[in-house]
Amino acid sequence: MSIERELFETVQKSLLKHKVILLFGARQTGKTTLLKKLIGPEESVLWLNGDESDVRMMLQNQSSISLKALIGNHKTVIIDEAQRIDDIGLTIKLVHDNYPEIKIIATGSSAFELRNKTNEPLTGRKLEYKLFPFSTKELINQYGVLNENRLLQHRLIYGYYPDVVNNQGDEIDLLKNLADSYLFKDILMLDGIKKPEKLVKLLQALALQVGSQVSYNEIAGLVGLDSKTVERYIDLLEQSFVIFKLNSFSRNLRNELKFSRKIYFYDNGIRNAMINNFSSIAIRQDVGALWENYLIAERMKRNVYNKNYCNTYFWRTKAQQEIDYLEEKNGNLFAYEFKWNSKKNHKTTKTFTSNYPEAEINIITPENYLDFVT
């Protein structure tokens, strides 16, 4: 069954604007499936895969005339994993400028590489979109609120990758394969990474620190790398849509943490695959971290798809007083505390409320989370 993606209508309308479409997202998030549905079977489409060496050769150092000979009478050109192709930005520019009737869509599982190769040549010529694993809203639209509420604990463990959602019973094998694909097909090709075992240890360390502040120096000691290398690897992991950072919020107090960060995984299933822990929620010690990672990742999907532009943070003092998540938009501050146990009495720290009295405070639990993530 084909699940409708939130990006579908947005990209569909963009195809009419005579712009190059760049579609970013990790491998296996459904980029190709989305494009096949968008283009439809009746249209003449040339599909090119940047993972294939002969395709890379054909698209490098070509003139506009030779590119037109390659494209022939096709009305649409789709280039998968375009970041693998040298000078792809210039190649796309030549086609776009000389043959404006041809629609061009390029996908990339590395934002760092594809943006580097397309930013300058395609200035003013491109529209960019991100595709994530399925969102809670997409699955609610497909299966209904009752079904997704019943599967919440399952989603916290196995996440939202399309193959994982669509193949119940095979989740662990699929997630382990996905984790290996991330590490060894994409990231290790970036920037000449020579120590895959160190990258695995780094991801395992990050998985165990979800919801906690991350010190590059501390992780460097755990993994056996210097802190600069850790920082570089983390940047590459972020550009490859494995993890993302949340920085600390600071305005008023001397004891607020000003330069701290937390790191989250785009998908709970990948996080659990890295530490090989697929135990049920009932017996886990890290349910708070899973809940926090899930909520922040789903909120990010919601904000990106709805073009809800805001600054996002966490807040913490040296005395360990903390707010899990903050959004700052149009001068307004919204604070969120995440609690898995909705029966406990929850109080927000007075240090925060007294110093930011204008902030709207919300407690997010399994009883009310749908308003937050959809």
From TrEMBL:
Signal peptide per UniProt: none
Entry superkingdom: Bacteria
Residue ranges of coiled coil: none
Protein name from the UniProt record: AAA+ ATPase domain-containing protein
Domain AAA+ ATPase, chain residue ranges per copy: 17-133
Stored InterPro entries: AAA+_ATPase (IPR003593), AAA_14 (IPR041682), DUF4143 (IPR025420), P-loop_NTPase (IPR027417)
